[in-house]
Design goal:
13% of the residues lie in helices and 34% in strands. The strands form 15 sheets. It has a 5-stranded mixed sheet with strand order 6-14-13-9-10, with no helix packed on it. The structure holds 2-acetamido-2-deoxy-beta-D-glucopyranose (4 copies).
């Protein structure tokens, strides 16, 4: 029974070999030593000449019956050609004879023959030699690393943590705690390596796929070793002979059976662990022992080698080379690779050249059938994914994934009543990728365009609808509708027309909190009246603590942020705590103890976490600790926890870069952390609060100073500085999923700011002559320069404010030493100046790294912006671009937060 199976397998093997080993009459030529072929020209090249046949120009020349190339010999990989002038030159071989004799290049690439190796070396103008140690067949992890280097060598990117001159690295986490980082003194490289080794979440046992690769490697290695004097064999017979030679070589006691002991010994003696880092020869018994007697006989052994990936011819239909995939946010998609081969080749999936199976991202998985799974899609998953056979890089399929969002639309006000003759204004804000079509409907029918001039006016891409000369017939439901590829979304604004309407035309505005030395004040921006006050001398309800201190003690605030619609969190660096203020009740409801000097705060809505970064002293010396408050918006008592420490120490954090909150509500699961005295960056899983990866930015001499995120196309933008001198070293754009550096603009300095809709990046660059505001747009292929604006204003702070003529955002920028406010329309480039913002706070009075003239916007549907100045707060109307009011008699008002 088992015998007949073996016969069939052998027959199948023969067919495969004949098909793939095309011109098997070629004699294999073997390089005995490790050699390199320097780029042309070089002396003493071996004799090797190729002539072109057929009608060549020189054969038409009656005076030169002889082919001038006859007397020319060219180095390997080249052939002789005659130039227009009749001279000869050695050019790169146009093609090589079709034969398979796989060789490793010293560049780590597997070539189909020696000729191919030399030809490619010539074409690349690089020195590539034959590597007889077959390193390119070695463990896949190492190979992938080499490929990623090769792939990126134009950009000098190296996010993979293995150093290219250290091929003997170990692939296993070195300690019990995989995240333990060896020692503080260890170099950046080692530290990163430890982390990433541990994070490569491949199984520790020998998988079928790796097993097949190991066998393949074994055969190739033995072919190189034993197969040379095998002149008579060709095609399958050659391989048969090779397999039988291997068998007798392994069968040390000539028993006709291979046992675990023998396989172990051979494996150890010949260091065959190089072939695969998880599979060994003993696994042959696990997979091939079909009769279950714990031994392999010659037939079982033959069967094991009946499939050979390295000779698999892979194909891809031309029409399938580029595959467009459209999916919606939160979809799960499975992408099949259409590359086929016989036998089916193992597939590797990449994004920007990075093998996705090494990412360790639970939402991106490569399955053993060669398909790619992208789970819980987010906008940042958009982009190109390629698949190719592990052993054949010529055939590549590109899958262009576009992620769409369901359009979102909101209107304001939801309900208004007007008198006949009044005018009504309805606003609509839409988001979506791709940006949806937005229109207004009344009682389900599109508003008649012909009536636009007199009755209705619509502006700013339907973001505003105005109804004039209102009469009773205008009562109704006005619907703003956004339609996109992924669906339609609507929101309704109702208008009631009544004689007795008490409308005053003023829409309800959000209120804002101002934090100053005396306490906290809440204002209404329309009339600038005080709405509520928390005194610094108040007692926090339920405790015996003062909000700030006894009479005469001034408040000292770090940062304040809104946490969902319920709370405001504010740090008190000198009191080592954060206060939680209920927006509704306007009282302090919780006091959260922290490490010393808590300053920066950030909120991650999808995880409901507040991250705090604590300084080590009143000045930021660059060594901080991180703390996290979980369930931050929940009604409960809150406390902090530390994320994973670094080498048992919590205070090695230089900076924490949380994902910024954007309109799309993209769920970024990772943030970045920089460490004291290290170039580069660590990626942190925010939910698990653990490090997952190291990103090496040393080639760019980069320690990030600022990091911004774009939901669209998953870009991470970094402002870089040199670690010791703090000299600016340019702007880097990373791919969020793979951490590959996409671009590095060494001369682009300044602080990047991403607009809430992810569409514009604004970089504020200070130099000797003033400030340049550089605007870039996000595109599927990265950032594209839009325009820049130069100003003599010394910009202190910037904020984005909803555009008054569209669904996007404009920029407002304050000046450090003037009472001017700069407005910039990010689409048209139009600039305006708002004056009269009073005297700015003296920079020396400002603590905790805040700008001396901050500014914040009320956000979507908010008309106003607020900017604190010396002893006062200015409320600016963003639509009319005028100062609405000044709220005076405030002592050092530096922080403000809008109520949502
Ligand atoms: C050698 O051969 C015999 C069978 O003839 C076998 O029982 C023995 O265990 C073999 N293996 C080794 C490692 O000696
Ligand atoms: C994705 O692939 C398509 C097709 O090859 C190409 O046109 C496009 O530029 C690629 N996009 C990126 C971001 O590389
Ligand atoms: C701009 O203002 C900052 C203070 O906010 C100050 O340190 C800096 O020197 C100013 N730059 C110029 C060119 O005036
Ligand atoms: C300024 O504020 C203090 C309390 O903060 C108050 O006592 C004083 O009367 C105020 N002055 C003016 C002019 O409003």
């Amino acid at each position: 029974m088992s015998r007949s199976v073996v016969v069939i397998l052998l027959a199948a093997m023969a067919i495969i070999f004949q098909v793939t080993d095309g011109s098997s009459s070629d004699r294999h030529h073997r390089d005995a030593t490790y050699e390199t072929v320097p780029p042309w020209p070089f002396p003493n090249h071996p004799r090797y000449s190729v002539q072109r046949g057929g009608a060549l120009p020189w054969s038409l020349d009656q005076n030169s019956p002889e082919n001038p190339c006859d007397s020319v010999s060219c180095p390997r990989g080249r052939e002789c050609a005659v130039t227009d002038t009749g001279a000869t030159e050695c050019i790169c071989l146009q093609k090589c004879p079709k034969k398979h004799h796989l060789v490793c290049g010293t560049d780590g690439v597997l070539y189909s023959s020696h000729c191919e190796l030399h030809r490619k070396a010539c074409l690349m103008d690089k020195a590539v030699g034959v590597d007889n140690s077959f390193r390119c067949l070695m463990p896949p992890v190492y190979k992938q690393f080499e490929e990623s280097l090769k792939y990126e060598d134009t950009k000098e990117t190296q996010t993979t943590p293995f150093s290219s001159n250290k091929p003997d690295i170990s692939y296993y986490p070195s300690s019990e705690n995989p995240f333990a980082i060896s020692s503080l003194e260890s170099t950046v490289m080692t530290t990163q390596q430890d982390i990433t080794d541990a994070v490569t979440t491949t199984p520790v046992y020998c998988t079928q796929q790796e097993y097949e690769i190991m066998k393949d490697n074994l055969l190739l290695l033995n072919h190189a070793r034993l197969g040379t004097n095998n002149n008579g064999g060709e095609g399958s017979h050659g391989r048969d002979l090779l397999v039988s030679l291997m068998f007798s070589h392994f069968d040390e006691n000539n028993s006709g059976l291979l046992e675990a002991e023998e396989l172990k010994r051979v494996g150890a003696r010949e260091q065959l662990s190089r072939l695969s880092h998880r599979c060994s020869l003993v696994d042959l018994l696990r997979y091939e022992d079909s009769d279950g007697n714990n031994r392999l006989d010659i037939n079982e052994f033959y069967a094991a080698f009946s499939k050979l990936y390295s000779v698999s011819v892979v194909t891809l239909e031309k029409s399938l080379e580029i595959n467009h995939i459209t999916a919606r946010v939160r979809d799960n998609v499975q992408i099949r690779c259409d590359i086929t081969g016989s036998p089916a080749p193992p597939i590797v999936w990449r994004r920007h050249g990075v093998d996705l199976s090494t990412l360790g991202d639970e939402d991106i998985r490569v399955f053993s059938d060669g398909s790619l799974y992208l789970m819980k899609l987010q906008l940042h998953h958009s982009g190109n994914y390629t698949c190719q056979a592990q052993r054949n890089h010529e055939v590549v399929q590109t899958h262009v994934v576009s992620v769409h969002t369901l359009p979102q639309v909101r209107v304001t006000p939801r309900l208004q009543s007007k008198k006949p003759g009044d005018e009504a204004k309805l606003e609509c804000h839409a988001t979506g990728e791709p940006f949806p079509k937005v229109e207004w409907l009344k009682n389900d029918a599109p508003i008649a365009l012909s009536r636009l001039d007199d009755k209705y006016s619509i502006r700013g891409e339907s973001s505003v609808l105005k109804i004039s000369q209102i009469n009773y017939a205008d009562t109704g439901a006005y619907m703003c509708q956004a339609s996109g590829l992924a669906g339609v979304s609507r929101d309704i604004s109702s208008l009631v027309v009544r004689e007795d309407a008490v409308s005053d035309g003023i829409q309800e505005e959000k209120r804002f909190y101002v934090f100053h030395e005396k306490g906290v004040s809440v204002y209404d921006p329309n009339n600038c009246r005080l709405h509520h006050q928390i005194q610094g001398t108040d007692i926090v309800p339920g405790t015996q603590d003062y909000v700030c201190g006894e009479k005469g003690v001034v408040c000292n605030w770090g940062r304040a942020i809104a946490v969902s619609t319920r709370y405001i969190y504010v740090t008190q660096p000198k009191k080592d705590r954060a206060l939680v203020i209920s927006k509704e009740q306007m009282v302090v409801v919780d006091v959260v103890a922290t490490d010393r000097y808590p300053v920066e705060l950030s909120y991650i809505p999808s995880l409901d976490q507040v991250w705090i970064s604590c300084w080590r002293s009143e000045d930021d010396h660059g060594a901080r600790t991180l703390q996290v408050i979980r369930d931050a918006s929940q009604k409960k008592s809150h406390h902090t926890v530390h994320p994973e420490p670094i080498d048992g120490q919590f205070d090695l954090v230089k900076d924490f870069f949380p994902p910024s909150i954007q309109e799309f509500g993209d769920q970024f699961r990772f943030g970045y952390v920089s460490h004291v005295n290290q170039r580069g960056l660590y990626k942190m899983n925010l939910q698990a609060m653990r490090y997952v990866k190291a990103v090496d930015l040393a080639p760019y001499n980069c320690v990030p100073r600022t990091v911004q995120y774009s939901s669209l196309y998953g870009l991470v933008i970094m402002e870089c500085e040199e670690p010791v001198t703090r000299r600016p070293t340019g702007q880097i754009v990373l791919d969020y999923l793979t951490d590959i550096v996409l671009t590095h603009k060494a001369s682009l300095h300044g602080t990047p700011n991403m607009s809430p809709d992810s569409r514009h990046l604004v970089t504020v660059q200070h130099d000797l002559h003033g400030v340049t505001i550089l605007v870039q747009e996000t595109t599927p292929t990265g950032l594209r320069f839009s325009f820049d604006v130069k100003t003599s204003l010394n910009i202190s702070d910037v904020t984005f404010h909803p555009s008054s003529n569209g669904h996007g955002f404009d920029l407002f920028a304050t000046a450090a030493d003037k009472d001017d406010l700069l407005y910039l329309n990010l689409v048209s480039g139009k600039v305006d100046i708002v004056t009269g913002l009073g005297e700015a706070m003296d920079p020396v009075e400002v603590q905790w790294g805040s700008p001396n003239r901050p500014i914040t916007s009320a956000g979507v549907f908010g008309t106003y912006l607020v900017s604190p100045a010396k002893g006062a707060v200015f409320v600016i109307n963003g639509e009319t671009r005028t100062v609405n009011c000044e709220i005076g008699n405030l002592s050092k008002p530096l922080l403000n937060v809008w109520l949502y």
